[in-house]
Queue: 2 jobs
Job 1
Amino acid sequence: MKFFKAMTVIGVLLLASVSCRPVQEEPSQPTPYELAKPSYFPSRTNIPEDNPMTEEGVELGRKLFYDARLSGRDGTDGIRSCSSCHHQEHSFEYGSATNTHHAMLPLINLAWNRTGLGWNGGVTTLEDMVLAAVTSPVEINADTTQVVKYLQRATDYPELFEKAFGSRHITFVNVEKAIAQFVRSMVSADSKFDRYLLGEEDLTEDEMAGYELFCTEDGADCFHCHGGGGLALMTTNLFYNNGLDDEFNDPEDRSAVTGSHWDRGAYKVPTLRNIAVSAPYMHDGRFATLDEVIDFYSEGVKDSENINPLMHHVMDGGVQLTPREKAQLKAFLKTLTDDSFLNNPDYSRP
Ligand code: HEC
Ligand code: HEC
């Protein structure tokens, strides 16, 4: 008996000593980030295998997105961050003039863009877009080596890079990855139209009539190009010449990427989500209001050998809407405004 008791005590002690052995300090792993994916969104995203989204990566990307130190300088004139141009309240577009000859594109649901970024689609990934934006003379105009040196010397960044990527040693590749993660986290899926699709809210009679015009060929005929992802994305993310002009002299249109004469005057079709708050419109910002845009599609379309065949009504100069139909179409476009996206604290300056 005594012997067994003793053995049990020893056993318990042994067990205790095993379980009490100090745990080896593992470098803490970042927490996977759950991208908010509404059920009616396309299932395929552009998240690369070597840049999975993490809570720490998105948070670091957000800080960098808003930090003028991303220009590798501090406190001097002309310093810029992504947020100098991409404003949340305008769907990460920007109203007034920039140094670029091209108008802005909104940063919305870009995790689902798989066809190229920028008006001509010349940039393939969001990671590449960060590099392009930081180094472009008309955007941040910085030198990546300088940026990395600057961030490495900062008191706050090395630790944040360690949390997100496991190393205090900052590389520009990790800067690209973090900001790309943050941009992918910007999901707009809570407009009135989304709630209508989910059966949670009704559209008014005018909004409903506008929706029908949008989706019918003998109505306003918008859906072929702007209805991508089963209306979830409000863009096919493809490139079209929509008949704005009949002469083409922009060297940076889609033909700059494909080399094809047929892509003269073609540009990426922007999402119509939050369109009411992201004026001015078109690649050169030529229209200041949605009324001007609708008038253009109704009676201002210009024919050329390059116009996309989906502009079915070009022979009539446009889709020929009555004033009432124009108002209904505009009412529908306004249901695409997503206030919770525009005010989402997760996307705002940290
Ligand atoms: C000086 C203003 C400016 C700054 C600063 C700027 N951008 Fe942009 N951004 C633009 C303009 C203009 C476009 C449209 C460019 C084009 O296609 O010609 C654009 C386009 C983009 C796009 C493509 C969107 C799409 O739908 O294809 C992304 C992504 C983007 N910017 C991210 C960033 C990030 C990230 C930063 C910071 C690293 C940044 N931008 C800094 C002006 C700016
Ligand atoms: C053939 C394809 C096509 C059709 C059909 C079409 N669009 Fe477009 N839309 C585009 C393209 C391409 C652009 C960008 C053109 C540019 O900037 O040069 C654009 C731009 C826009 C813009 C400006 C977006 C921005 O952020 O600047 C609005 C608004 C718009 N379209 C609304 C509509 C409406 C409303 C209809 C139906 C009446 C419609 N579109 C039909 C291809 C199309």
Job 2
Amino acid sequence: MQLGIIGLERCGKTTLFEALTQSESDPARKGEVRIGTINVPDDRVDILSKMYNPRKTIYAQIQYVLPGARDAQAKSADAIWNPVRTCDALIHVVRNFEDMGGEAPDPAKDFSKLDQELVFADLIVVEKRLERLELDAKRGKKVDPEELDQLKACHELLENDKPIRTNPDLAAAPKLRGFTFVSAKPTLIVFNNDEGDEAMPEVPGLGEHESCMVVRGKLEAELAMMDPEEAEVFLEEYGVTSTARDRMIRRSYELLGKMSFFTVGEDEVRAWTISRETQAVDAADVIHSDIKRGFIRAETMAYQDLIDTGSYAEAKKAAKVRLEGKTYIVADGDIINFRFNV
Ligand SMILES: Nc1nc2c(ncn2[C@@H]2O[C@H](COP(=O)(O)OP(=O)(O)OP(=O)(O)O)[C@@H](O)[C@H]2O)c(=O)[nH]1
Ligand SMILES: [Mg+2]
């Protein structure tokens, strides 16, 4: 899962990126794209790893992509958006703290400003493509009517200042995937609050449609630099019950409709990330295309059943291990042993 971090100047993107990835910046590389990979903490993986004592334990991973500072870049929209075009989702950071110059935050205005930049960037792409298709039609070249319709629908939204993600069907349309529209990406809006402030700011129009959360970026960045004991005291002091990192991971999974299944063994205990409603045969494909090709059965057990019975053998005795076919819809926390033949 890859998430791009965007936001206006000085909203706290780098601070948040560093808190999430526990990394430090090199001021000399201000213009460069940074990518940080983190393991997704999962108690279930920890417990499975204790049970199986494998040679390797592999957690699910999330990648955060931080484009270089906007003011250090060429001002072209391409330079700004290209690094996040291939991301699965965006994290839009909005300043909600008083900046160093003493300027009060205006999160509603800032959110809308950048959101409109996304809209504008896509509008340019749509218009170019529509012009092209029109020209093709004139020259007697075949034009895909579905693509044309969908692009027109995008155009209509964008012209009315609406991001493509406001129409989920359009945002997910396979014919449009190649355009990597930035306003079509699932977006988590992250308000970056001052240390002492936990409140979600009022932003008219966001309401139920958008996925929003509050973090305290600077506090989280300090936290990320502490050793565990220090961090515990600090967390208590500020009344933080779970870190921004954990909350953001949870929200990212929700936003993208993702979940995990596990494979276990003496060699490796591993978490795999898949979309909700994934069939067993496609879950197999995430591991290896050969397993999909030679799929016979998915030997499946719920994580909780393994914990309740205490071991694979006991779970089997209690008839908790099922043999599922290709179209079985994998559940969050399933432990799967794929039987295949290639
Ligand atoms: N009070 C407060 N200050 C913050 C917070 N987050 C970031 N800052 C400060 O705001 C300034 C900008 O933060 P950065 O993380 O560099 O912001 P940025 O979005 O990466 O900035 P550019 O890359 O220059 O656009 C820094 O001085 C941070 O210390 C916060 O949550 N609270
Ligand atoms: Mg920065």
